[in-house]
Automatic annotation (TrEMBL):
PROSITE patterns: HIS_KIN. It catalyses: ATP + protein L-histidine = ADP + protein N-phospho-L-histidine. Residues 19-233 form the Histidine kinase domain. This is histidine kinase. One of its GO terms (molecular function) is kinase activity. It holds the Pfam family HATPase_c. It comes from Niabella ginsengisoli. PANTHER family: HYBRID SIGNAL TRANSDUCTION HISTIDINE KINASE C, TWO-COMPONENT HISTIDINE KINASE.
Length: 235
């Protein structure tokens, strides 16, 4: 009986978030279009350019959150499918890293990337976009003074590993698996904005690539998320 009630509560929560996501996507699209037109007309040296860029980044973030909820619902309904192509992982990761550079600078963070050049893998580019965005966003959002991202190729050259490290509130050992559950929020960080599904979605997408996403258990003075993915996933 308790399980049924919990399941019903979970479904209600998913339905609510999905409906909200659908509702906000249309006005967001209508905001983004005219704003981009204004940005094209305003000279880069204009004093309002920074404000427009800030508005654009926040609109993009809201759109990302809305899409994330809808993607999560698709996965729940077995309606999310991957399309594998040959992707330059180094280039994709670096592009997403650069998107967060202004936010890291605003938060006065040391923000660095170490990236082996031209690592290619078979992957779904949109899914990797979502995983990288979520993990970098989390690292920047919760960091105190630094974020480091490292991409390496495994010794057997069958996998690539990306680590996302930050020195924010260190996730307690008992929560290191729970944070990958849908809607789970650590009490000490519950004041931060978020849907509580980003890590759950990222782990599911990693597993759909025959990979893994976990917190490095050997690190106790910082948070290090490890993404381990094969170069050639088994479809």
């Amino acid at each position: 009986m308790a399980f049924e009630k919990e399941k019903e509560h979970y479904e209600d929560k998913i339905d609510f978030f999905t409906n909200v996501a659908h509702e906000i996507k249309t006005p967001l699209t209508l905001i983004k279009g005219p704003m981009e037109n204004i940005m094209d007309e305003v000279p880069e040296s204009s004093p309002i350019t920074k404000n427009l860029q800030l508005m654009s980044r926040n609109a993009d973030r809201l759109m990302h959150l809305a899409n994330q909820i809808l993607d999560f619902r698709k996965i729940e309904m077995n309606g999310f499918h991957l399309n594998f192509d040959r992707i330059n992982i180094s280039e994709l990761l670096n592009d997403i890293y650069l998107r967060f550079k202004p936010i890291a600078a605003h938060n006065i963070l040391s923000y660095e990337i170490s990236c082996e050049s031209d690592i290619f893998a078979q992957a779904d580019e949109e899914a990797l976009n979502k995983i990288f965005n979520n993990l970098i966003d989390n690292a920047v959002k919760y960091a105190q003074s630094f974020v480091t991202i490292t991409l390496t190729l495994s010794e057997d050259q069958d996998h690539y590993k990306i680590t996302f490290a930050n020195d924010g509130f260190v996730i307690p050992e008992e929560d290191r698996e729970k944070i990958f559950d849908s809607f789970y929020r650590i009490k000490d960080t519950s004041g931060q904005s978020g849907t509580g599904i980003g890590l759950a979605l990222s782990r599911t997408l990693a597993e759909m690539h025959n990979g893994k996403l976990y917190i490095d258990p050997m690190q106790n003075d910082k948070n290090v998320f490890v993404l381990l993915l094969p170069l050639m996933p088994k479809n």
